[in-house]
Write a structure and sequence with these properties.
heterodimer; A: mainly alpha; globular; B: 290 residues; mainly alpha; 3% strand
Amino acid sequence: MKLIMEKKYLLIVVVTLVLFPLGSPTLFSNFYIDLLTKIMIFGIALLGYDIIAGYTGLVSLGHAMFFGLGGYCAAYSMKFLSTNLFPMLLVAFLCALLVGLLVGYFSIQTKGIFFVFLTLAFAQFFYLAAFNLTTITGGDNGITLSKVTFGIPKVWEVMVSRPNGFYYLTLGFLVLGYLWCHRVISSPFGKILVAIRENEDRVSFLGFNVRLVKIKAFIISAFLGVTAGVLFATYQDFVSPGMLHWTLSGDFILMSVLGGMGTLVGPVLGGAIILYVGDFLSSLTENWMIFIGSFFVLTILFAPQGVLGLILKRRGKKEEN
Amino acid sequence: MAISFSTILTSMLHGLILGMVLVIVAGGLTIIFGMLDVLNFAHGSLYMLGGYLGYTLATATGNFWLALVVAPVIVGFIGFLIEFLTLRPLYGRPPLHHLLLTFGLSLIIGNLIKFIWGNDIYSVSPPSYLTGATRFLGISYPTYHLFVLFFSVGVAILLWLLITKTRYGVAVRAGTEDIEILEANGIDSRKLFTAVFVVGTALAGVAGAAIAPMRTVYPQMGIDIIIDAFIVVVIGGLGSIRGAVIGALLLGQAVQFGAVFLTGFSDAAIYIVMVAILLLKPSGLVAEAE
């Protein structure tokens, strides 16, 4: 089974995404551009999550830690540095490296279920800090951000226009993120990740430093997580402890599994389905998670390889015939 | 800050009650994991369902004891449906699939509860002779809290007797060690799996119904307990009942003393305990299940 979608299809998707805002406001309202922006932001975090969970097989219940970390980095660099996006990202990457190293180092001492809960614990520390240190973080009220700017600080800076400017900015990051992840998983390093998922001991016997590889994968996923976090905070001009809560990490797992882990495109697709269907259903009933939950249960029961896995399998069968 | 004897005693009692409730909830999780290799994420939602059913039955019939018995039976029946319909097809798959499946189920149950009972908070009134406070050793302590303590100790002893003194218990303990040998001895493991899952979920139901008068019934109660219960199971050593009991009592005290000493950060206490234990003993306190 081909795990990576062919270039042809991805190109069509990207072109469609580039042309999409042209349809507004004649065909649909700006609301859909905002929704798609949100889907793409989650997509960036999910790409990173797929590296660690899908490819390396280390399912973490703490990915919201990086998402929220990015958010708070954006808030603080806006407060103390500038409104420019790039210093924000730089600060976020530094924090991701630091936190990724620390949490990664301790978490990868364990495996399987223990890893799930150790990452959860570390993420909850951040959540509790954000929630309880009210003088610094504003507690549950969060921090309101000013409008984000783009460009080279002090030389050329523009306000990112809404919704289209922000949409294209996010699209750019999503494409870059995908290309980077694709490069990572196609490299020999990426093959080792998959080998670790399949049989860790053999990789170790071959002389690779499994722990080091795992930490690297963890940090890569952290980088994408904070990028998404920075974008999400600046997209809604607001950060709150909710961005760090474990239920959001649970949502990342939900989206990844639904779309199909270990395919890069799958989790992004899963995120799009849940966010879009969730938005649609939430206008009908407050308890729309009943349907998402049922859909998810059916996926695990009948199509554990996810929606994308199912599509690829079907196509594989057709080609055989 | 001077900490008096009565403050410490009250804190320890609070912690002990919390710990005993966790013993019941996490005990159910543990026997399920030990036997079926299923980490049941829906356990918190089933606990919450026990609370809501207890509330409805108690208010409808006016009989608290009836509610305390019938609610876990209904929860156990739902547990049966879950095991029979969704878990059975999944045996043999990686344990992570079970965790994910039950995560989905927890979303369904949690939101169905919100759909049926709404977002309101309900208080359940215990029988009049269990209300008020009892005075002893110089402190005044709510009578119902003491009842929860004795009740959960009673349930724990029953569970212990069931596991150590009955034929079923022998089969369960044997199944935790080696399921194939058990089958070779002519025991239908499928039936045993179902029975264990039903008992485990009923334990969640009974804990939810028993704690309802103490903590009220609210839509977040499932989420509030599940992580604590999981932490107990994980630090206990995944599948070890002894470990779970130690872990639950430890966690109960950690939460309570966290509230006294880590003002504003009390919630972090349980995570600190878990991280410390897992870093020192990566496979939990009592790693006998593996």
